[in-house]
From TrEMBL:
GO biological process: nucleotide metabolic process
SUPFAM superfamilies found in the cross-reference section: ITPase-like
Organism whose genome encodes this protein: Streptomyces canus
Top-rank EC class of the record's enzyme: hydrolase
EC number: 3.6.1.9
Catalytic activity: a ribonucleoside 5'-triphosphate + H2O = a ribonucleoside 5'-phosphate + diphosphate + H(+); a 2'-deoxyribonucleoside 5'-triphosphate + H2O = a 2'-deoxyribonucleoside 5'-phosphate + diphosphate + H(+)
UniProt protein name: Nucleoside triphosphate pyrophosphatase
Cofactor requirement: a divalent metal cation
Amino acid sequence: MTDQPCRRLVLASQSPARLNLLRQAGLTPEVLVSGVDEDAVTAPTPADLALALAEAKASVVAAKPEVKGALVIGCDSVLDLDGEALGKPADAEEATARWKSMRGRAGTLQTGHCVYDTTSGRYVSGVASTVVRFGEPTDEEVAAYVASGEPLYVAGAFTLDGRSAPFIEGIDGDHGNVIGLSLPLLRRLLAELGVGITELWAPAER
């Protein structure tokens, strides 16, 4: 038995929601932002784009000498609405138009995941998909939500764990995936690399 996790875990994302999900699951990741130019990455479908972005972020951070020996997690989310990949809106006007087009409809939140083992040089990746059913907020509610600033910082201009939660009727799939990271998929990817997720748990406080 050991009192310390056997491997360093590095999250290649500045998302506080992803960091919180990992911490709530007993993990203690460090954060190192990749700096990948997301606009330069293209793919034929929203799911492919989410995966390509996650792989790009993980590989850039995994190449940094200071993370040698660590497991690097890269993630990226986009909303698939009628086959169009919707990330963070560029400004308040776009966020408003986005919400007016989404209300009363359903989209699929696609989150790409990539885990890079810097010891072996191997990486594995996958996409988690969750259907999101949007409610019908009024124009006044949309305006108030956009004015809060929150939708400008999240993929699809919404999140389940923030001010837009009352405007989401329900989901079909993993709720963590909508927040930013699917823990069940992460567990499976780690297992493919021969790492049990419980091996990465922080020591319990005594």
